[in-house]
TrEMBL record, chains A, B, C, D:
Keywords: DNA-binding, Repressor. The lineage of its organism: Bacteria, Bacillati, Bacillota, Bacilli, Bacillales. This is AcrR family transcriptional regulator. It comes from Metabacillus niabensis. InterPro entries: DNA-bd_HTH_TetR-type_CS, Homeodomain-like_sf, HTH-type_Tx_Regulator, HTH_TetR, Tet_transcr_reg_TetR-rel_C_sf. It comes from the Bacteria.
Length: 196, 196, 196, 196
DNA sequence: TATGAATGAGCCTTCATTCAT
DNA sequence: CATGAATGAAGGCTCATTCAT
């Protein structure tokens, strides 16, 4: 019983994500989402008192899917260089394999606004840069294997590339994906390491 | 008379851009734009028979502002390395100083859709990668100063970083801007050049 | 058990009255009332099969509280003049001390409608004028202490003043209340008695 | 042209009043009002940006009709006693002959609320008591023809009776109306004058 | 007896578009 | 050229009611 309830919530969230990806945040009306879920409009507003609440749930749900995926790769590594390569690879891999969630997050975060027009997710969550910054400091200060660059700006640069891939790659050619991953990993390897 | 008409058109486009940036594409209704322009709603639909047409004009106008700005820097340079540095710097500088246009383009391109939900600007214009690709080929094939990487993927990587800066930087601290430009320029310098 | 059921009913009615007074009849939804009562919406519809039924219960409950209060004062008096003064005073005192119930009645009676828009309590209950009319007839026909006026119109006049006080007086200043009571009592004393 | 625009506004207001009187404030939806006016729903929201704005217009319009009517009677009189009689008679006559407007005002004023449940017209406009208070002071302090009573409370008492007549009298029997007017006028004549 | 789930209608509002002037 | 008027669709939301458990 309780299980069913939870599933219904999640079912709606998943349907919402699907609709958002297909027709965009703006056209992802509660009516459209309900139709996709095969339920009446009231069901959606019953489980989520607001459209805002539903969209927050969409973002949370999508984020929650990424975290374990990313950690898996990071625990197996050692050096700063290896950590950075693993971070980029695991993130890109997640994005390529879960484009749906990534796009949904982007759609919601960049479009959801309050009544007076302010972006709902205006304050960028700086904490997402923390893991990268730690890796950079490890390479610069502890190992001395990284050249001297600003960790914050480099973190933003890396994330820019990762995040943009969610919308850039459309064809799911597996070869393309592996090639792209290895190229980007190499790119930031060269970009960060200290030349002997 | 004709001059007035053109000015009126451009005025509306500029006001539209302002509104789009402030409240987002979705809330940038014709009514809002007309109010901002200080004219009646009819004037807008008179100059632009469609909302779609107005939005296309917004994108064209914004793009048109970028092109001369970019070329100015590129003509003064020589080597592939210098060209790349100039390309990145001029693009970033334009973006930082014309965030309004960049954001407007992003808003419109990523949100404008047809009635059945398809993105209006779905087909990514691959031609924007051409200048970068040419620079990369010059460095790899002619000069031999660049290492061996995929020019297309590298071009997408570079543009990802440039484009994302339009939304990432909020404070207009001039020092921050210069720092960011030099860091990113250096990053891709190291990322592309062949180590001796 | 039965006791509990009754208490639960009355608890809901009291909460409904509170909600009605605070946000008005229209906004006194079953959901709001249930929330105030700290129970699920289903409990309300379980005890009252209808919103209409609940509202009727509200009116009955509120009326029921007034009757004993009014009689207490009336039994101790004698002459028509004294009866009228006691009637007005006791009614005003009840209203001032139980504004909640009075306002709830007014809200429901003046707003509850059938599906086709007809007032539910359309037919004014003429019986509420009876006690006053009897007092007037006593003063006019038996005692000869009252001047010649239409008992029905005077009864409506008196009740108008009494009923309106439920919404007019907002500050609960005790001095104000006593002053108001004595002034109104005097007013109708002068208005009804035969001048020598 | 301008004339037509004004008429359309007033036409909607009048239709709104009619609908409010017939089905009550709550059921007087913009849709219902538009249907009654024989126009599309959008026309109403075009002329009145809000339901609140429309309702304010209803109240203003209704009030505006009362003022000239009341003044006509008051200018012809002299003594405090005559002024009071004229005030009550003219007000009652207006109410009986324009019940529609009076009821509309009552419906709106006692039901229109803000989003958080507060009455829109919460602050009672004390200025409506001013004319009566002036009459009373004239009779008490200047002429000495009125007995000693609280002018404010008496003013509220008189207005209670007048206002309540808007909802109390349903049959338009002309004889009833005249009888009621004369009885109420007499009542407050006796209630205020000083007995010799 | 009690509850959460679901429904469908209705409301206010926003909006792109059309049209007569 | 420009405008105000009007339309109709769609959106988010509230709500009384029904129903299975």
């Amino acid at each position: 019983m309780k299980n069913e309830k939870i599933n219904r919530r999640i079912q709606i969230i998943e349907d919402a994500i699907q609709v958002i990806v297909e027709v965009g945040y703006t056209n992802a009306s509660i009516g459209n989402i309900a139709k996709r879920a095969g339920v009446s409009k009231g069901v959606v507003t019953y489980h989520f008192s607001n459209k805002e609440e539903l969209m927050r749930a969409v973002v949370e749900h999508s984020y929650a899917m990424a975290i374990p995926f990313m950690e898996k790769f990071m625990n197996e590594s050692d050096s700063a260089q290896a950590l950075l390569r693993a971070y980029i690879e695991s993130n890109l891999r997640f994005i390529f394999e879960h484009q749906k969630y990534v796009r949904a997050i982007i759609e919601v975060v960049s479009n959801a606004r309050t009544d007076d027009g302010e972006l709902l997710y205006k304050e960028e969550d700086e904490s997402i840069y923390e893991p990268l910054i730690e890796i950079f400091k490890l390479g610069q200060e502890v190992e001395g294997s990284f050249r001297d660059f600003c960790p914050i700006i480099m973190a933003k640069t890396v994330r820019s590339v990762i995040d943009s891939m969610g919308t850039k790659v459309v064809n799911n050619d597996i070869a393309d994906m592996e090639k792209t991953i290895s190229e980007i990993v190499d790119t930031f390897d060269f970009a960060t390491r200290k030349n002997s």
